[in-house]
Amino acid sequence: MRTRIQYALRNINRNRLNVTITTIGLSMALASTLIIFLFVGQEHSYNRFHENADRIFRLNYEITSKDGTRGSNILVKPELAKALEDRVPQIEHCTPFRMGYMAQLDLEEKNLGVKLGIANQEFFDMFSFNLLKGNRNDLLVDPTDIVITKSLAQKIAGNDSPNYDELIGQSLDFTFIKDVSFTITGILDDVPRNSTLDFEAMIPFDYEGSFWESNNGFGNSILFYELKKGVDPEQANKLIYAEVKDFYQEDIEKSQKDNFLQNSSDCFRAFALPLKSLYLDNTVDGASYQLTGSRSQLRILTIVALLILFIAFSNYIILTIGQFFKKAGEVSVRKSMGGKNIDIFKMFLTENSITILISYLVGGILGYVLIPVFNHISESQIYFNLVNIPSLVLFAILSIVLLVVLTSLIPVFIFRRVKPTLLSTKRLFAGKKAGASQVFVGLQYALTIVLIIATISINKQTNYLKNKSLGFSEKNILSVDVRYLNQSTAAVLRDMLQKETGVLNASLTNRDFFDGYSTRTFKVSGSEVLTTYVFKADHYFIPTLNLSLLAGRNFTESNVVESDKTIIVNEEFARRMKFDTSPVGRIVDDGNSKYTIIGLVNDYQFLTSREKIEPMILYARTNMGNGYSSVLVKYNPQNLDKVIAAIKAGWKKIDTKESLNYTFWDKELESRYKSEERLSKTILYASVIAIVILSLGLFGLTVLISAQRTGEIGIRKVNGARIAEVIIMLNSNYLKWVLYAFILACPIAWYLMHKWLEGFAYKTELSWWIFALAGLLALGIALLTVSWQSWRAATRNPVEALRYE
Fold first, then answer.
1. How far is CA 55 from CA 43, 51, 234, 687, in A?
2. Over the stretch 274-302, which tens digit does the pLDDT of each residue have?
3. Which of 117, 155, 175, 758 is the most exposed place for a label (fewest CB within 10 A)?
4. Among 23-37, 62-76, 262-276, 781-795, whose mean pLDDT is lowest?
5. What Rg, from alpha-carbon coordinates, does the chain have?
6. Dist. CA 151–CA 611, nearest whole Å
7. Residue 474's CB: how many other CB atoms inside 10 A?
8. Does residue 237 contact residue 245 with C-beta atoms inside 8 Å?
9. Is residue 195 domain-shared with residue 109, that is, in the same domain?
10. Nearest CA among 333, 347, 408, 325 for reference residue 5
């Protein structure tokens, strides 16, 4: 063994150029693959830390409106949890749950914003959140119990090491709940980063407060249930779905009678999603405020990582085997002296093991060092404690073994049936000796061209979404958070800002397009039914956003009262309601009240540009839905500093303990497309890495083939061949395979990008120039890579070349 290692090290030193090329390429591929696999593994880890995650499901349902439109939702009545526990014996635990509320704790000197959740006692029996202090059986038992997290405990105590014993039993007051104090009965560790359930405090559903009343017919709570051990999920879920439909039967019949639901037996269908899949498969309506990922993007990143590995592995195999051909003479001597195939295998195995282990070690270190760079590019964070490290180690071990064995066996199989006398001649390498290598190069270039096309296409689509006209003026708008102020105080702040220099307009609304949405179902004339997005706004909303009033009038101050029954609709609402003439003056009904349409505005993009423009209504009445959440301030950018100073001064004048928070709309709009930008950047860098690895391999292959054709080049030059002719001869085969690669890559890239773009309501075209540019880039890279070495071989003195041979 020692002798073989020494011999392998001498060979590595003798072939430094080849070893350096293969090591750099393999290390770069392993580093980038490691980072991508860490990120993908982390994304797949969400909700898996719960002990019984395999048995926990979230209830969802799908309804079919009168017009045939299907919509899914997760919001149900909290009473359904108790009904299912009583009716379905396969259920171990069942709890309603609400989150997404930003409540304000009323502390002595200031108010503290808290992410508030609501559940029942079984929540902590079902989910494995770590309890630091308190008795799990005593959590959320009384209507005024509250459970807080470690970070909230630190904020309340004012230090990083609070005394939990002193906090247990302490009373907490919320600003929106009058005359009720909550008692701390438990302190949890902070919610893990890979949890879709996010909260800082939890209170029980048993608290009887008007704040918790449902605002739609089917409810406004999420429902989780855990099945008993050994229960078949498929059979249990079928029973649960039937019980859910039975629970809602009266509501379904009423909605059908009022022409809101389709009059069919399948207008309501319950279904469930496993807890483990919520993060990546959470596309159900009503779940927009929950943390979600993108399974399609993870698949793309995984494919990109595997493509990079394929390019690096095939490079290594091609160059390593090509280098071993130079040892044909040595193998001939060994076989002539009685050497066996196993001895030749061990010789290759030792050398391969050393170079591959070095590559993996360098790749692992490089990957670890570059993780902060990836975090910056992707605007995310990789945490090692959230990733299944043993699976990555196993993958590394298996890939090392596969690569070492493969690169050691292939030359043995090539040499084993060749006579030693033939091994000592050049005839072994005659004919199409580079054919297999060039096929691999062609495949590598095809994959690289696909990556280049994907990079350009994704970047083009992202820019299209960011620059697409939204139908309103989104520039120079500030959104001031007033969700914790009462409506009259918020109006006072708006009126003060209206008078300030630099403020062009200011408006109150309950949605600023970035914090979720509300929907209601409307019908007209007892026939047409439409599920519609609804926004609460004052009479300054339309001029603040510079919306176009196409017909009718705007709200006036007299409409901003509790009894108002007027609404303004967009073009899509009128179109879907099939109004033949102007909708102004038409009456629509939401099942509780009738409203008169007084105005028609242009369609504008209140959802992201991934989604098509939907029907929308604006209402001004103050007692409909929740209070105002934002003051939208349209400002002159030249007076921005004065405007911000005026907002701060106005906040002090209204005398509130709430902290001032404001955001710029242009930055919020850009953040809507972070996932596309992250994907575009990641694939761009992956493409660069693939190109570098491919170029290194192509350069190394050119060096090997040029060396093998030294005699041929010398003879051609002696016979009068010019340098340009020799360069063309050496380059032509590579350029031919680049052309084949382009022909192969174009339909593959077109199909993949076409499928990706199907997820967007508004999309750019896959223009011909994208494919042409990718082909030209691939051709240019190939020419730059091989031409230098071809020029060196072509300009070599033919006498020296023939003497070498």
1. 20, 9, 11, 41
2. 999 988 886 666 555 567 778 888 888 89
3. 758
4. 781-795
5. 34
6. 37
7. 17
8. no
9. yes
10. 347
Scan for tokens 């059986």, then name that residue: 137
Any domain includes 390:
yes
Boundary (domain end) residue, out of 631, 657, 683: 657
pLDDT tops 70 at residue 400: yes
Residue 667 located in a structural domain: no
CB atoms within 10 A of CB 73: 18
Q: Do the Cβ atoms of 700 and 319 come closer than 8 Å?
A: yes
For the chain, what percent of residues have pLDDT higher than 90?
Answer: 31
pLDDT at 615 over 80: yes
| Same structural domain, 96 and 218 | yes
Same domain, residue pair 275 and 328: no
CA 710 to chain centre: 52
DSSP assignment, residue 65?
Answer: B
SS (HEC) of 509-553: ECCCCCCCCEEEEEEECCCEEEEEEEEEECCCHHHHHCCCEEEEC
For 336, the 3-state DSSP assignment is helix
Domain housing 582:
485-657
Q: What is the pLDDT of residues 309-332, one digit of tens each?
A: 888 888 888 877 776 666 665 666
Instruction: Quote the CA–CA distance of 3 and 675 in Å, as a whole number.
Output: 54
- The reply to whether 213 and 74 lie within a common domain is yes
Element (H, E) at 791: helix 768-794
Residue 289: inside a domain = no
Residue 410 sits in the same domain as residue 452: no
| Residue 302 resides in a domain | no
Residues pairing with 622 in the sheet:
none
pLDDT for the residue numbered 427: 47
Task: Give the SS3 label for residue 618.
Answer: strand
**Domain count of the fold of the chain:** 4
Tokens describing residue 351? 């050398």
Q: Based on the fold, state whether residues 30 and 59 are members of the same structural domain.
A: no
pLDDT at 527: 62
Confidence of residue 785 (pLDDT cuts 50, 70, 90): confident
Amino acid present at 204 = P
What pTM did the predictor assign?
Answer: 0.80
Res 432 pLDDT > 50: no
What integer pLDDT is reported at residue 341 of this predicted model? 64
Residues 368 and 517 in one domain: no
pLDDT for position 466: 82
